[in-house]
Amino acid sequence: MRLNHLLKAAGIAAAMTLAGASQAGTVDTIKKRGELVCGVSQGSAGLSIADKQGRWTGLDADLCRALAAAVLGDPEKTRFVPLSSQQRFPALQTGEIDVLNRNTTITSGRDAGLGIASAGIVFYDGQGFLVPRKLGVKSATELEGAQVCVQPGTVNEQNLVDYFKKNKLSYRPVVIENLVELEQAFYAGRCDVYLSDASTLAASRAARAGKPDDFIILPERINKSPLGPFVRQDDPNWVAIVRWTVNALVAAEELGITANNADSQAQSTDAQVRRLLGVDPGIGKSFGLDETWARQAIKAVGNYGEVWDRNLGAATPLKLERGLNAQWNKGGLLYSPPFQ
Question: What is the pTM of this model?
């Protein structure tokens, strides 16, 4: 019994040491630097794109700001680093960025072999095909011999190979790394088809097609594409902070907490609301953050529904339905584990 007690105590001490080391890692670096460095796309409307004034907008960009608010108390202390599909993982691995929020698909290989870890799903998506309406194609099964624009180093590239092989169709890939150059090539007619996540296709059509109605997204989704943030594996505390910041925005929507009422909701008697907003002692101290970290994130960007409506919803050029990205109690897949 005595030995078991000592082993248990030693295990707790080791865990506390590791937790302390983690807290002194990414969070400490961000605090000393005074800004969060966030890797984003080179321009994907609704997800991460810079406007004419250079301000980044989109779901991914808002998550960056939510993290800056959680760690530093100020969403504007965010530095955005646009990255190509091939630049994104090296930038994260080498510490050039603290977190990658770049419409990146979560896969087993990325979690297992690159020294990085996914930290939650922010968008349930799937790969599809964008084609000119004048092509007369109604289904992806009609793409025999098509020239297909695709970015290298993406799961889209592998899914392209798999889909055409499975359906015994020939094709000619047009591989272009830079997203802007790839889309210019597609709209200039250098390829017949543009393959990417359906959200990326919708964003591209809304922002870069001269006449959006001249292009259609075919109905097939050739693979699931859950998108989410990535961080390095060597800091479990930071992995948890990023994951639970995503959860905080999702939970806030379910609980009716918004950017405007987060402070007044702190007077609620609901235990879930009080824990989320840091009124009752929560997990902030364990993370190395202020107890109101989640409240700061919600006040900065709003709950998940507010982020969606502002960047992707019916009032935006993308006009995307919530679909799978609705709350679990409204027919979707969004679901936050409990804050307790």
Answer: 0.83
